[in-house]
Write a structure and sequence with these properties.
2 domains; Outer membrane efflux proteins (OEP); 476 residues; elongated
């Protein structure tokens, strides 16, 4: 609609009244109308206490909870340096950050619908239909959707909850990468320790072979004893070489995690000399607030709930206010004069009368998606408690196993000493020495493996407890 010149002045009063009436009606409707169910976080099964923590670890005060740089609890400076590099240089982490930034941009895009859309245009046209007609036009258009049925609000809520889920996903990736780095590091150091044990073993086997050869030359030992000593020595040497293969793979994996080229990265050997730290456990209810994957699942529930409201709003009219104002004239000299101005205002409402059931199908799909999000959330909670219990049990059992294995190592060393002395005295065959050597080496390797598994379980428990993160760190 366009009103020009005097028609504009005659229509202004009635137009203003209609505009104010439409705005008042829209405000009143918006105050009293809402679509979609209010969001309430569904209940999830939460035990009163961790079963595996009973009698294993006393409750810890709040100032001993896991902190952000949780890897510092292991007191290993090289590990700390690697973890800091990962925070800065990991390409996987940067990709997750980029996904979060995309989600933030979608929130801003959704919020833009809360404000009017303003456009401007200028044109000069000339045509003829027997006479030459010239038209100069300068106009501004305004369009605004009155969010009576909260369609825009639900869109913003859904995008905001999705962005918060993306922020929690970023923390899931961050926690997972730091945990993977720590586990790879401990496995590498365990191989360094095993390589050191095998190096000492090879040196001891070389002396034993030399002794056996001397005894063979003196007619005391047989050629079978020499062959057995040589076999035992070469087996140990082969085991030592094999550790280099596994160590190289772990070194390359660490390089990739921290954003370095594997060809230019190396870690000097260093035996594993750590002890498994005491990890503050807290209460099961705390897990709901500390686990980023639980937070992500909960935020996706909120987003799905907003989508239900958005689908419901499609059953109601879309109320919009549109207006235009500007200047139009057939003469360039009179273009922007008062007599050439015009304006228009038009409230409107539109609703689909028949759509073949499309809106109902969209609404049903949204409700089913919400039910899926609820089930996923509850399953994530159950998995979280399982992971905590698994690693509490692993730490408790491995601590007991470590004590037993320590006794076994000492017993194997005594057995080796006795067997060697018996062989030197001509009382026992070299086969007895070999059995004792194999047992001593196996017990030492097992002890190192148990320590590595305890450290790994400590990392996994920290991950299961959220790594010092909590929902208060989600962006608002």
């Amino acid at each position: 609609m366009r009103i020009v010149g005097a028609s504009v002045r005659r229509a202004r009063t009635s137009g203003r009244r209609a505009a104010w009436a439409a705005l008042a009606l829209g405000a009143a409707s918006a105050a009293g109308c809402a679509t979609g169910p209010p969001y309430v976080r569904p209940e999830a099964a939460v035990p009163p206490a961790f079963k595996e923590a009973r009698g294993w670890k006393p409750a810890q005060p709040r100032d001993e909870t896991i902190r952000g740089k949780w890897w510092e609890i292991f007191q290993d400076p090289p590990l700390n340096a690697l973890e800091e590099q990962l925070s800065v240089s990991s390409q996987t982490l940067k990709a997750a950050q980029a996904r979060f930034f995309q989600a933030q941009a979608l929130v801003r895009s959704a919020r833009a619908a809360r404000y009017p859309h303003v456009g401007a245009a200028a044109s000069a046209t000339e045509g003829s239909g027997g006479t030459v007609v010239t038209d100069y036009l300068l106009r501004a258009d305004v369009a605004y959707e009155v969010d009576v049925w909260r369609r825009v609000a639900h869109t913003v809520e859904a995008s905001r909850a999705s962005a918060q889920a993306s922020a929690a996903d970023l923390e899931v990736v961050n926690l997972g990468l730091h945990g993977e780095l720590a586990i790879d590091y401990f496995q590498l150091r365990a191989l360094d320790t095993e390589k050191e044990i095998l190096g000492s073993t090879v040196a001891a086997y070389e002396k034993a072979l030399e002794l056996t050869r001397n005894r063979y030359k003196g007619g005391i030992a047989s050629a079978v004893d020499v062959a057995l000593a040589e076999t035992q020595l070469e087996i140990a040497r082969a085991q030592a070489i094999d550790t280099d293969v596994r160590r190289s793979e772990l070194e390359h994996a660490i390089a990739t995690l921290i954003g370095h080229v594997a060809s230019t990265f190396s870690l000097p050997p260093s035996p594993l000399s750590l002890e498994a730290p005491a990890v503050p456990g807290g209460l099961p209810a705390d897990v709901l607030e500390r686990r980023p994957d639980i937070a992500a699942a909960e935020r996706r529930m909120a987003a799905a709930n907003a989508q239900v409201g958005l689908a419901a709003s499609a059953f109601y009219p879309v109320v919009a206010l549109t207006g235009a104002a500007g200047f139009e004239s057939a003469s360039l000299g009179d273009w922007v004069k008062a007599a050439s101005n015009f304006w228009s205002f038009a409230p409107a409402a539109a609703v689909a009368v028949f759509d073949g059931g499309r809106r109902r199908a969209v609404s049903d799909q949204a409700r089913a998606a919400y039910d899926e999000a609820v089930a996923t959330y509850r399953d994530t909670v159950l998995s979280a408690f399982q992971e905590v219990e698994d690693n509490l049990a692993a730490l408790r059992i491995l601590a007991e196993e470590a004590k037993t294995q320590e006794v076994a190592v000492a017993a194997a060393q005594r057995s080796l000493t006795l067997a060697t002395n018996r062989y030197k005295g001509g009382v026992a065959s070299y086969l007895e020495v070999i059995v004792a050597q194999s047992a001593a080496l196996a017990t030492q390797q097992t002890a190192v493996n148990i320590l590595m598994r305890r450290l790994t379980a400590s990392v996994l428990l920290i991950k299961a407890l959220g790594g010092g993160w909590d929902t208060s760190k989600l962006p608002a």
